[in-house]
Every structure is written in C-alpha cells, then in structure tokens.
Automatic annotation (TrEMBL):
Lineage, uppermost ranks: Eukaryota, Metazoa, Chordata, Craniata, Vertebrata
Keyword hit for Membrane: yes
Gene name tied to this protein: TMED9
The keyword rRNA processing is annotated on this UniProt entry: no
Native species: Leptonychotes weddellii
Protein name: Transmembrane emp24 domain-containing protein 9 isoform X2
Protein topology in the membrane: Single-pass type I membrane protein
Length: 205
C-alpha cells in the first residue's frame, strides 16, 4: 500500500516545482500530492543511487535498477504509468486543475538486491511557466515576437483561471460550513422549544 507523503508542502508555491531527496527500499512506493493547474507541462528530472556497504555510501545505480512512475489526476485517472532507467526525466501534462498524485518506486529488473536494497532518489520537479524557456522556444520553432507573447499570455491565463477556480471552491466550502452551522443551531432551538412544549403539556414544568 502506497505511503502517502504530503510533500506537496515542499512544492507549495504554484508553478515553482521543487527538489527533494528520498531514501527507499526496493519496491517501496513513495507518493506525494501536487496542486497543478490544467494544461500544465510537468517535468521530473531524477537520478537514483544504490547503497554500497563496502564504501558506506550511496553510489549511482546500475542500469538494471529501474524507476517506475505513476501519476493520477484529481479524478483518479492515470496520466502516466511507465518504467524508466536509473537516471533521466519523465514528463506529463495535466488535463484538469487540482491535486495530482505522483508515486515512485525502484525495482531491480535483473538481480535481487542485497543489504536490504537500500536506494535513494533525487528528484527535481518543474512545472508551469518555469518549465518553458520561451527564448529556447523562439529559437527552435522560429516564433515571432508576437507568437512568443501569445504563448506567455496563454500560460498566464491558465494560472489565473486556476487561481479563480481555487478561490471559488474555497468560497463555496465556507458558505456550506456556515449553512451547516445555521442548520445545527436552528435544529437545536427547535428541539428545545419542542421539549419545553412537551413538558408543559405533561405539566412537568
């Protein structure tokens, strides 16, 4: 069963991604939650290491150690389920705004790991506008300055729409909480009045 790590706090600033380090055992799955706007390209650059007890330190993983990446969107739909090598990058694009679950685990595809299979993952997540080097886009795709500006505006619009959606959701949750409180208070008052009338009818008060 996945151990859900709320590492989203490390990536709290929307669009800034984050870098972190995980120590794991073979087949031990680590998951974290990331808030991502829709239509956002996410890139995870990683490298893995295998513990060498003779050297008493971690060394770069051999080629037969693979990283498995699984990504689910807020509707629990799979966006990515793929096997990668010991070092490289993975990419996916969000389809809807909200909390995305990203899970990782390492597995030996050739030999059983000794020494309890102690492994480490270095992961650098990049998303939003920081993923896009607009100058590089212009050079590679020969975009005009106008096209480049349109690309930037589209990214800004996506960020703004996600922010507005989040604010609207928070406001609905607040009003629903107020309504629940009002209903509870009204129910309590009605029950008190009903009991008071009942006792009076029975001449107990």
């Amino acid at each position: 069963m996945a151990l859900l790590l709320l590492l989203g706090q490390l990536l709290a600033l929307m669009g800034y991604g984050g870098a972190f380090y995980l120590e794991v055992r073979e087949l031990e799955e680590k998951c974290f939650i990331q808030e991502i706007p829709d239509g956002t390209v996410v890139i995870g650059n990683y490298k893995t290491e295998l513990y060498d007890p003779a050297m008493e330190k971690y060394q770069p993983s051999p080629q037969w150690i693979n990283l498995f990446v699984f990504v689910k969107d807020p509707e629990n739909k799979n966006l990515l389920a793929r096997q990668y090598g010991p070092q490289g990058s993975f990419t996916f694009t969000s389809q809807s705004p909200g909390e995305h679950q990203i899970c990782l685990h390492l597995e030996s595809i050739r030999f059983a790991l000794f020494y309890d299979g102690k492994l480490a993952i270095h992961l650098d997540m990049q998303l939003g506008e920081h993923t896009n080097d607009y100058a590089e886009f212009a050079a590679k795709d020969k975009l005009t300055q106008m096209h480049l500006r349109v690309q930037q505006l589209v990214e800004q619009w996506r960020e703004e729409r996600f922010r507005q959606t989040s604010e609207s959701t928070n406001q609905r949750v607040l009003w629903w909480s107020i309504l629940q409180t009002f209903i509870l208070v009204a129910t309590g008052v009605w029950q008190m009045q009903h009991l008071k009338s009942f006792f009076k009818a029975k001449k107990l008060v």
